[in-house]
């Protein structure tokens, strides 16, 4: 029994280590072709321009003809950038190296949450070229520059603009869904064993992001064997301290309320007050501005056909999926998992059979908030830290849990992936500001047809 937590911790550390090691080798891998080309006198590599060192947010782009090996920069292509209303806010023309830079108007803070559309003028392209994508949508989630590429070549299957945008949004949706699933699973576990609808769960997510940011902001860097591991320590600290924070929440607040026989409605109201209090504390500590983790301020993306994928996104997704697999396996096949399901079904009967109900609930709080903390840290890694990062997705977390079926672990995961993918793909048809509204409308429609949720007939936990 004692070997299981050790294996879980080892797996977590291994996955996060892979995140940093792969992220740390990206710059070297992308720089080596340019160095070789310069040494041999070959044409310059078609690389993204370097991030700008100013207070504005810029769109950094490149246009390359990938029919050649190495890729050839395409010069003289006109580019326009439009805001959500279709108004042109910037124009540029690709240079000799195929790159362009468009500075977005306004302060960086005012641009967060907006989506801009980058378009290339097909008439300005060289003859006999078939661009795979003519437009790309770029959501601004961080206060740093964003990158975009337009590969030129024969359009293959799914190479149309709409299909390429759908694939790109689906990639982002899968990453977000995996993180949403961890947060939803933690909420579902707590609800399943205690019946508490915890409106402070969003602040448990933010706590993990804040811990990771605090580690990142420590003086200097943390390195092992010459490799910077600051993000490893930050993510692991978010997971461990998140669990400790959950235990403290239960021991100092929820357990005394349960012993007094406080009703679930009253406890729900207490959770709303706790949420407001913690959010104010986070704002005081972390500030009101969005902040990015220093180690991954700019990561060169991989180009897979018309889709851009960063090593950070891939490994965050793999880490989240690995944690979900381990957690569900523990709940399904271990003794504590069976005890958790028993407490969720009938606490009184479980106590009569010798199960320590309070100990099980305490472990559920630790595990559920550890998942929430890890989700927050990885959300901060992909979207940047915001003292309201958990509060902003709280409704989506609730929607995922209710859509899948209250108190079911599989329902929470399935619901999270439906909600996460739907919110991203819906921006193909509606403005990005309304994507969360669409997810909530989907929840209403499903509950009108199936009030118990998609997997509501399954056990409450397990």
TrEMBL record:
GO terms for cellular component: plasma membrane. Keywords: Amino-acid transport, Cell membrane, Membrane, Signal, Transmembrane, Transmembrane helix, Transport. The keyword Cell membrane applies. CDD domains: TM_PBP1_LivH_like. GO terms for molecular function: transmembrane transporter activity. The chain crosses the membrane at residues 169-192, 204-225, 231-249, 261-282, 314-333, 393-422, 428-449. It is found in: Cell membrane. Residues 1-28 form the signal peptide. It comes from the Bacteria. It is a multi-pass membrane protein. Pfam families: BPD_transp_2. One of its GO terms (biological process) is amino acid transport. Its main location: membrane. Belongs to the binding-protein-dependent transport system permease family. LivHM subfamily. This is Branched-chain amino acid ABC transporter permease. It comes from Nocardioides iriomotensis.
């Amino acid at each position: 029994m004692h070997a299981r937590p050790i294996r879980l911790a080892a797996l977590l550390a291994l996955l996060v280590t892979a995140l940093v090691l792969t992220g740390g080798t990206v710059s070297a891998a992308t720089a080596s072709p340019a160095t070789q080309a310069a040494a041999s006198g070959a044409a310059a590599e078609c690389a993204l321009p370097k991030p700008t060192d100013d207070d504005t947010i810029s769109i950094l782009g490149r246009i390359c003809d990938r029919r050649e090996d190495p890729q050839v920069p395409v010069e003289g292509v006109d580019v326009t950038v439009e805001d959500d209303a279709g108004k042109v806010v910037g124009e540029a023309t690709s240079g000799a190296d195929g790159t362009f830079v468009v500075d977005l108007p306004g302060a960086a803070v005012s641009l967060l949450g907006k989506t801009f559309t980058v378009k290339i003028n097909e008439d300005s392209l060289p003859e006999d070229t078939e661009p795979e994508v003519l437009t790309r949508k770029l959501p601004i989630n961080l206060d740093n520059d964003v990158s975009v590429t337009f590969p030129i070549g024969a359009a293959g299957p799914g190479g149309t603009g709409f299909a390429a945008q759908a694939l790109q949004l689906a990639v982002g949706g899968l990453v977000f869904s995996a993180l949403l699933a961890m947060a939803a699973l933690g909420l579902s576990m707590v609800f399943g064993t205690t019946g508490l609808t915890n409106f402070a769960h969003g602040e448990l997510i933010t706590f993990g992001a804040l811990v990771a940011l605090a580690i990142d902001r420590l003086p200097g860097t943390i390195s092992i064997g010459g490799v910077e591991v600051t993000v490893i320590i930050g993510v692991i600290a978010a997971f461990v301290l998140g669990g400790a924070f959950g235990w403290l929440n239960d021991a100092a607040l929820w357990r005394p309320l349960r012993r007094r026989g406080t009703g679930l409605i009253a406890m729900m109201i207490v959770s709303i007050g706790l949420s407001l209090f913690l959010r104010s504390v986070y704002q005081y500590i972390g500030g009101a501005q969005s902040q990015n983790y220093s180690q991954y301020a700019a990561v060169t993306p991989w180009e897979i056909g018309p889709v851009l994928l960063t090593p950070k996104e891939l490994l965050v997704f793999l880490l989240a999926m690995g944690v979900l697999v381990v957690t569900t396996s523990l709940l399904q096949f271990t003794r504590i998992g069976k005890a958790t399901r028993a407490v969720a079904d009938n606490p009184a009967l479980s106590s009569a059979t010798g199960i320590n109900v309070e100990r099980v609930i305490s472990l559920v709080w630790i595990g559920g908030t550890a998942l929430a903390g890890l989700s927050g840290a990885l959300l901060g890694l992909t979207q940047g830290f915001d003292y309201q990062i958990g509060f902003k997705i709280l409704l989506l977390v609730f929607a995922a849990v209710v859509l899948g079926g209250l108190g079911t672990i599989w329902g929470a995961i399935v619901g999270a992936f439906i909600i996460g993918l739907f919110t991203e793909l819906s921006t193909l048809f509606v403005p990005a500001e309304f994507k969360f509204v669409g997810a909530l409308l989907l929840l209403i429609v499903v509950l009108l047809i199936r009030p118990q949720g998609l997997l509501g007939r399954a056990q409450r936990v397990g």
